[in-house]
Amino acid sequence: MKASNDLWKERLAGRLPEALAEEIDVFETEIELRSQDSIDEKVFAETRLRRGVYGQRYDNGQRHNGVESKTLPYEEKLTKGPHTVWDAPGMQRIKIPYGGMTPEQLEVMADLAEEYSDGIAHVTTRQDIQLHFVHINDTPALMRRLAAVGITTREACGNSVRNVTGCPFMGVCPDEPFDATPYAHALTQFLLGHPDCQNFGRKFKPSVSGCAQHSCGLGMMHDVGLVAKTRVVDGEEQRGFQYLVGGGLGAVPRQAKVLDEFVVPEEILPITQAIARLFGRHGEKKTRSRARLKFLIEKWGMERFREEVFAERAKLPEDPRWTEYLAAIDANEEQPLKPPGEMPQLNGDARLNHWVQTNIREQRQPGYVTATVALPLGDITPNQLRDLADIAREFTRGTVRTTVEQNFVIRWVSKSDIPALYEALDRAGLAEPGASAVFDIVACPGTDTCKLGISSSRGLAAELRHRLVARTVELDQAVRDLHIKVSGCFNSCGQHHVADIGFYGISRTMQGYKVPHFQVVLGGQWEENAGSYGLPIVAVPSKRIPEALDRITDFYLRSRQSDERFPKFVARVGKAKIRQVLDDLTQNAPEHDADPDFYSDWADPRQYGIGDIGKGECAGEVVTQYEFEMTAAERLVFEAQIKLEEQEAQQAGELAYSAMVKSAKALVQLQYDDVTEEDPDEVVEEFRERFYDTELIFDPYAGSKFADYLFAAHEAAGRAFTLESARHFIEETQLFIEAVHSCYNRVREAGLAQSGAQA
Length: 759
Description:
5 domains; Alpha-Beta Plaits; 14% strand; alpha+beta; globular; 20 strands; Sulfite Reductase Hemoprotein, domain 1
């Protein structure tokens, strides 16, 4: 591996920017020092993360004594167990600012996926590309080869400014006021490695949107979101941006708030710099769960935050980079390869017609369209990347971008070339129809490779897609228009909060076995840059989720009014009625021996969890009591959601608090029966002593985060709730309930292990 790094270092000498070449050299040295234990692992972890190098969940069978074996089949990868970046391959994240790529970059990406990973390049929900099963010793060579074609992995992960996402239709969208691409590019270059962006407690995610009505840039769910707009000043049209701050998904999502309705281009960079300085100086550093910008804004309030930002802006020393890019703002506009054309007759080709209806989008420039290359699960092979590069050269000037829905778009296609483009894509296996429709399901890596995954998001997404595609002809257009998104855990990397129908992975115990489940999330809105967030309504066993989806869509079609869209339908009908349609799916698990498949996850041959945990009479009595209490707690938090729908913020918050105390009591009663929720002080005290001080409640990855929600809620008992604070508190309660379930499983497993040892 060292020989490979040396070879590429020599071959690419002089082709890399000097500063970037030096940085990669330093990282290569740090890898060597870490392998000798000369650098602390905690320090090195942030070092490698800032260069996009992640640890990964499963080994692919490679040997690590300098000899590489063949990549093993997917099923064998799954049997390999957890590891660190030193004893097995990991993941390399590669930043693709606003998704823009050239054919040359696509070809290099193909080579890297083929030579260093498992032969798949994965497009992420932030328009990055990830390569999995990459050994850390190969990353310097990989980084040099990327740098040679203008791509960096710097600050792709870690406590840094992440990829600047941007609408892939910027510059060609009929609904945008102007092309925001050069502003997104300027923001990317200015923030990359900026000294004021190196002292964050957590990540910082920017976004640029070409318009307010679509979802392509998702400004409402970012730390900083810029939305292009214009105004007339003294009779002249002036460009600017609505400036949003404090958005974010994660465990407890927040919608962004307006910092300023109109920021002129000259102020975009200095205002962002001022925000970064404030975040670095005042943002949380100790408690990671409170270390995003949204929590600083919540702590200060929007009025104070706005005052602090503009006061900080006034102190900044002048920087020519703030405005020098504006002199040539329209100089690098994309140009077509071919003249505009007219759509030819499609001659009744059903497949081509379907693809045109779902994957072709008119540009603002007459005679041109943008074609979406839909990638199931966001995956593309090396040969497909090479084919895509050739296709981009044949039909355009290489104008390709990735999207937040894990696809590619090819811009500036002459209408007259649509049939030929389709044929070329079809030959490459890249002509999947249904882009941005119900078939185009977004999923995070989940249990395939992510250390935080609880349930198989990719497995479920693949199964749902397979079933929906099989029913294409019979699907009503209202169902085809739905957005479905799946996350492997509560962290919303699959963006389940902003889907029409979202799912996130959790675990439950049924018949004495761990069973993969998904929470069903309703109420999200994908349009208007992620205009609203959904809430979980019920947990359903993973193998019953396809039926749950069928029931939801059937109920929607039966009960909607005229052409009512799904978000409005959910708001009108209410979550309680929709939950009634699903309630029986949560009950009556089959006997394990009669249906063992029920107890495994999608696309995973192993039995989920540890198996039978014992069902003696005493244990049965405890389980019954625990399940009874937790069912009541989940009912209370759902009732809180209903009150929130009815705009009863105070009652919603109080119900959520009752649910939190009841679930804490359920755990306490595993050890101490004589406790009641009529005395919350006693419940919290016993919980702290038995489960917090002993660290039993601590999540393997989130630590004390979810238990802290209980203590904060108890300290604030009796507070007044607003609709916004009640919503956030309901989310926290739901997460605390999931933490209690996880703790219960761990406690039971530990008890089983102890019994086995004694036996």
